[in-house]
Structure formats: C-alpha cells, structure tokens
Amino acid sequence: MPGRDPQHSQFPIIHSIIQTMQFKPEAIKERAAMYRGLRGYFETCGYLEVDTPLLTDNPIPESHIELFKTQKVQPDGTSFPLYLIPSPEVWLKMVLASGSSSLYQIGRCFRNGEQVDRWHRNEFTMLEWYGINKSAGENLPVMQEILKITINAVNPEAGKEISGNIREISMDEAFREFAGFSLESALKESGLTGINRTSPDYPASLADISIFFQSRLKEKNLPSGDKERESADDLFHRLFLTFVEEALPADRPLALTHWPAFIPTLARDIPGTPWADRWELYIRGVEVANCYGEETDERLLKKYWENESTEKTDPDFRWPQLIARGMPPCSGTAVGLDRLLALVRGDDSLKGLDLFPIHDNMPR
Fold first, then answer.
1. Does residue 55 form part of some domain?
2. Helix, strand, or coil here: 152?
3. 314 pLDDT band (50/70/90 cuts)?
4. pLDDT at position 233, please?
5. 8-state DSSP, 76
6. How many domains does the chain have?
C-alpha cells in the first residue's frame, strides 16, 4: 500500500525479533573460517569426521549434569525417554569400539539446569576428538595447533594470553602455590596412591581425605561442610574453586594437569600415583577444553555407570561392556568452540556469537 514501509508493515514481528538479536555479522564469518581450518587440520592428520545423533536413550551418566529429557511417542500411544546429548562422547566411543581410526566431531550439545551467563549456555558447540594410542599429554600439541588455527582464522593479532605456548601446571603445584599445602602429600597419606577403586579399602581412604579437606577449609575460616552429605569430590572442588582456579596465571594459555584420581570421571589412573591422566585448558582464566586418557577397564566403567546414574537415566551396562571390550587405548579432548571463538576475538562474553539465541528471551 502507498506510504507504508513493507519491511515494517508486512512482517512486524519478524523485524522486531531481528532488531533485538544483536548478531555480530563478522563473527559468523569468523566461525565459518575457524571450522574450515579445523576440518582441514584433522583431515591432514588422518582423523575421520563423524556425525552422530543429538538424541540418545542411554547417555553416559554424569550426576552433576542435568539432561534435557523428551519422549519418543509410538503410534500406539506408548512412549520411552530420550535425551539430548550433553556431549557426543558416548557415540564417539561406540564408533571407536567398532574399529574406527582416530576421529572427531563438531556439533551441538545441550546441558540443562545451568545458569545462563557470560560463559554458559544451555546449547553450545563442541569439538570433540579422540586420538588412538595417545595419552592426555600427547594431545596438548594438538590443542596448541587448534589455538593457532583459530587465531589465524579469527584474529592474527591476538596477544600472548591467547597465542602464547601452553603452560603446564600440575594440580599439586597449583595447590602448593595458591592453597598453601601439598595435595599430593595429602592424597598419599590418605592411601590414595595407586589404590584400586573397587577395593574394600577405598571408602576409608575417601573418608580420610574428606577429613583433611574439611580441616583445611576450617583453617581458612570457611564452612567445613556437612560430613554426611558432602563427598570428597565436593570438598575438593570447594577448595579448588575458592583458592586455585581464580588465581591461575592468565598471561598465556594454561593446562592444569594431573587431577586427583578419586574424582569420579572416565579418565584412567596414572599407575603408582594418586593422579588421573587428565588436563583442563584455561585461556584468560576461562575453562575452554578438557582431556582424558580414556578408561577402558570394564569393572571401573561399570562402577562409574552405576554410581553416577540417578533417577534421570537408569544404568545400561551393555555400553560400558562394549566400550571396554572394543575401544582401543586413546585419549579424548572436548573444546567449547563458542568460548574459544569469543576469547580469540577478544570478547568478554558469548553475547552476539549465536544465531537466533533462545536464551536471550529466557528469564535469567
């Protein structure tokens, strides 16, 4: 009609939505360039790219991760639960167990129950790769290459806090410097060196380290925790988050290595030590990646499945059995690509990097 602006009159709702999305158009192109670089690198290195489902009926249980749950409704009206994947880990391990070479995937992941903030989203993009016959430490050079690829694609002028060589600090070194005690000595004194987690002595060792952590918290005038409800894992993370994580050097990328083996994960133990074959990468103080030397002991996998399962998903022991019997020795690394993109760009949050972000319309 004469005198009317078609952009506003024909599609007012769409126009209003687009106006509030605050896209960063250059970031869309930078993300595409980053993906091209990553795919080219992994292809050159002989990694197979795979594309696995976003839905599963049997996610790897992680009691601290809330899942997005839905229902598959059958024509007869019956239904069964399905879950959006928190990571492609369970699928990628099944592909490895079937005889695949080293592999990787770039895809969307979903985690419920998290507060949406500067660095957290309920839906995000993850790069996950598995290198056959590699320890966690042997994946650090791969991570360094991924940083270089992203910098070249997105921001070649990035400062040393992004582009510098990855510094390695062990968890014991970090606790000595920032928490004021030797974590390794405490773990050894509690009998947590090379102990079998299926041993009847294991619960007593966990009780001993819990008492130690409670005493350290009390010394620092912090609540020592509920002895009945807080686990050794809970107490460790309270000390770590309070005294260590925020104090880690941020002048260049940092890999925090050698995490306590008693923390329930799927990282294998380093024999004869209290440590797991594991690292986490921080850039500008933000966690960006984690890597495990993958556990393949069937007893430990079943125990993990059993202990970590909650009412959210019943344990299904077929999968740990298949993984244990078929998956080769390997290490797996997961990288939050949204965070990596934001940090390399020099942004201080994820805002503007998502297309059509549903979280912008949600209550905080």
1. yes
2. helix
3. low
4. 93
5. T
6. 2
